[in-house]
């Protein structure tokens, strides 16, 4: 049901992992007015430029309107029959490991849940992975190693009470603006707040920093290992906490001390001033309420998981976890990366925070879904999945709400993989995406404001997205499309959903399946298990665990009770050390001496299919660029606005040069947004590094080795 004119309807922003609540009103001309939801605990009525412009981006321009097979328009029944038949045939001939789903943090939790249920529960393969692999999987791996489960311990309220905030690997000001504004307000109001930004670039986030550590790329583990050694040396650890509640301290410390040298040597290796390093360590040592916020600069690395654990180690050593104003805090990139992690959208998780290899969980899920075909081993992670497709092992793929040709690294290889795959099905809102060009079957999906369901933000808060407007053509909800294919594959009863509320309630019930010891899991939605029907439609933002249905805003932290989800119930230190081979790619440096970093700009989102429709947002930065330090530009005769070619052995891009001392010498930065559709020559994924973190499988998108020349 769409909403009536004049009423203000609560929903959630389409973009980043802050998960801001919005209110939308349909105007007389059918367009949307948008304002912040003052009652939403993520943003209290505030919205950034992208959120405020949501009404300007609701357009039918460029939308995929009808299903098609080989370019010929088809009815829904014909298209769904075709997809189901072709997947079934492929599985019959080549087995369940020959098919795959590649999904997205843009999906709603209900969509994600049915996709995971179909692939892992009924097709019997683990081959469903998500573009969240590119975004947060190193944090997931780090959380699981330390806490025994993928749990973000804190809540946004910690931003208001921390006395030291470390922002590392994140341009919070542009990528998570409402959290940045929240912190900025605190900085203006409190003299006792010390903010450190750790970033090779001098970004807008540095405007609120007391200290900016522009460390050399990929030296984060060394920085935090040095901190752990410093804390021990200066007797600033919480020995009682370590002894009573943790394991692995001695080996983590030994590893850290192996990497730690004198402050002078350490500062030199990190590429920063010794006094600054000393100041950072001393402030951490002496400030109890310390919060470490981190994002893609930490995760998108060949040693992303180790970076995450090097941060967590320092918080465990000081007992600063699960208490107000302190803890490690991973900020997610996409609106529902967290919801996807919850249901099991990553190929190496079974479902609802239950893992492969846990026999009791396997049996419980099999019983719950009433299937005897539940996958028994992890599937392929994103980069490996497309490699397997390239090698001819994946023979049918369904890509849902994502555009891997312009978001996965090494685009040319992704294109070759899709060309080799006998069946490529793409569900999307947009007609002419770079990936749609290689699809055999196109299925039109509803977009933000047309679909209804839930998302989970960075502080584990589940909020409703609501349907506001009718969808164009015959576009359908992703959960409906997936369920209809599942029914046609012979799984009618398991996918016979009437509406998304039924799916959410089933998912909530799944989170109540017991642990081996009969205790509740971290992801416990028992309070939401009665929500089908009207209860679901009235769901207010709730932070998990939801042990009872809350009517008031509740801020919850994990691990205040010092009980973790590891077998011993103790938190785990992880021994991590500098891996010289992973600090920079092993590929030859002489041909490609520059390190290319990439990321978001303030007013655009991913491939700009939505934000690109707003001229107001487009006015911020109008064209793609590569930022270069003047000292690197002068010998190459590169001047401001010159066209330059950035290239390596994977590909090249042609963009304008932006000369700035905010960029460190030897390093370049380019936005991720422009691509084959919006600026053919400027797709950074053409040359992005596809080396991955061995544990998380996350590609090292921020350290591609390239050279640059004037065009
Ligand atoms: Fe939307 Fe993120 Fe901006 Fe909030 S901070 S309005 S969720 S883009």
UniProtKB/TrEMBL annotation:
Q: Which domain of life is it from?
A: Bacteria
Keyword presence, Iron-sulfur: yes
Q: Where is each 4Fe-4S Mo/W bis-MGD-type domain found?
A: 6-62
**Record-given protein name:** Molybdopterin-dependent oxidoreductase
Give the residues of the full protein shown: 1 to 711 of 908
Q: Family membership, please give it.
A: Belongs to the prokaryotic molybdopterin-containing oxidoreductase family. NasA/NapA/NarB subfamily.
Which cofactors?
[4Fe-4S] cluster; Mo-bis(molybdopterin guanine dinucleotide)
Which UniProt key words apply to this protein? 4Fe-4S, Iron, Iron-sulfur, Metal-binding, Molybdenum, Nitrate assimilation, Oxidoreductase
């Amino acid at each position: 049901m769409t909403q009536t004119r004049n009423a203000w309807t609560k929903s959630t922003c389409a973009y980043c992992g802050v998960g801001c609540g919005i209110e939308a009103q349909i105007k007389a001309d059918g367009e949307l007015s948008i304002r912040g939801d003052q009652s939403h605990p993520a943003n209290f009525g505030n919205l950034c430029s992208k959120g405020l412009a949501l009404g300007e981006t609701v357009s039918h321009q460029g939308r995929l309107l009808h299903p098609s097979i080989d370019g010929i328009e088809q009815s829904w029944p014909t298209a769904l029959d075709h997809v189901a038949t072709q997947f079934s045939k492929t599985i019959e001939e080549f087995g369940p490991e020959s098919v795959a789903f590649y999904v997205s943090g843009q999906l709603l939790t209900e969509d994600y849940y049915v996709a995971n249920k179909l692939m892992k529960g009924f097709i019997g393969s683990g081959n469903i992975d998500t573009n969240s692999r590119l975004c947060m999987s190193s944090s997931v791996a780090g959380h699981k190693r330390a806490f025994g489960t993928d749990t973000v311990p804190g809540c946004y309220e910690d931003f208001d009470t921390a006395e030291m905030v470390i922002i590392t690997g994140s341009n919070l000001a542009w990528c998570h603006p409402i959290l940045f504004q929240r912190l900025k307000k605190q900085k203006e109001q409190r003299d006792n707040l010390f903010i450190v930004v750790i970033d090779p670039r001098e970004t807008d986030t540095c405007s609120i920093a007391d200290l900016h550590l522009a460390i050399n790329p990929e030296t984060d583990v060394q920085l935090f290992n040095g901190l752990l050694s410093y804390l021990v040396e200066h007797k600033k650890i919480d020995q009682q906490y370590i002894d009573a509640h943790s394991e692995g301290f001695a080996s983590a410390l030994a590893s850290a001390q192996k990497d730690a040298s004198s402050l002078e040597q350490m500062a030199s290796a990190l590429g920063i001033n010794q006094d600054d390093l000393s100041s950072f360590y001393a402030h951490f040592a002496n400030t109890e309420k310390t919060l470490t916020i981190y994002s893609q600069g930490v995760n998108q690395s060949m040693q992303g998981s180790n970076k995450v654990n090097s941060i967590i180690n320092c918080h465990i050593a000081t007992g600063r976890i699960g208490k107000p104003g302190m803890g490690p805090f991973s900020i997610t990139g996409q609106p529902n990366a967290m919801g996807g992690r919850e249901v099991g959208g990553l190929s190496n998780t079974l479902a609802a925070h239950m893992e492969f290899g846990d026999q009791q969980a396997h049996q419980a899920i099999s019983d719950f879904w009433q299937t005897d075909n539940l996958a028994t081993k992890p599937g392929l992670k994103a980069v490996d999945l497309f490699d397997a497709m390239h090698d001819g092992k994946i023979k049918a793929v369904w890509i849902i709400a994502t555009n891997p040709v312009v978001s996965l690294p090494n685009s040319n290889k992704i294109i070759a993989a899709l060309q080799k795959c006998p069946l490529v099905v793409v569900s999307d809102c947009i007609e002419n995406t770079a990936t749609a060009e290689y699809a055999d079957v196109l299925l039109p999906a509803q977009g933000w404001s047309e679909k209804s369901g839930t998302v989970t933000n960075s502080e584990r808060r589940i909020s409703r997205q609501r349907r506001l407007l009718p969808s164009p053509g015959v576009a359908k909800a992703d959960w409906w499309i997936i369920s209809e294919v599942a029914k046609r594959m012979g799984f009618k009863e398991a996918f016979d959903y009437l509406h998304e509320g039924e799916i959410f309630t089933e998912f909530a019930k799944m989170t109540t399946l017991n642990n081996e010891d009969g205790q509740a899991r971290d992801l416990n939605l028992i309070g939401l298990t009665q929500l089908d029907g009207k209860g679901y439609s009235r769901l207010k933002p709730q932070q998990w665990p939801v042990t009872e249905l809350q009517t008031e805003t509740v801020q919850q932290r994990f691990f205040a009770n010092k009980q973790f989800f590891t077998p011993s119930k103790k938190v785990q230190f992880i021994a991590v050390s500098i891996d010289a081979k992973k600090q920079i790619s092993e590929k030859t440096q002489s041909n490609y001496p520059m390190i290319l970093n990439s990321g978001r700009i303030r007013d655009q989102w991913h491939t700009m299919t939505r934000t690109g429709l707003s001229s107001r947002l487009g006015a911020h930065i109008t064209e793609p660029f590569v930022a270069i330090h003047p000292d690197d530009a002068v010998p190459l005769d590169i001047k401001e606005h010159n066209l330059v070619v950035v290239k390596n052995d994977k590909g090249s891009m042609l963009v304008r040069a932006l000369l700035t001392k905010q960029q460190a010498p030897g390093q370049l930065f380019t936005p991720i947004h422009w691509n084959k559709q919006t600026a053919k020559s400027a797709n950074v994924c053409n040359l992005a590094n596809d080396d991955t973190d061995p544990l998380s499988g996350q590609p090292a998108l921020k350290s591609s080795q390239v050279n640059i020349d004037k065009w």
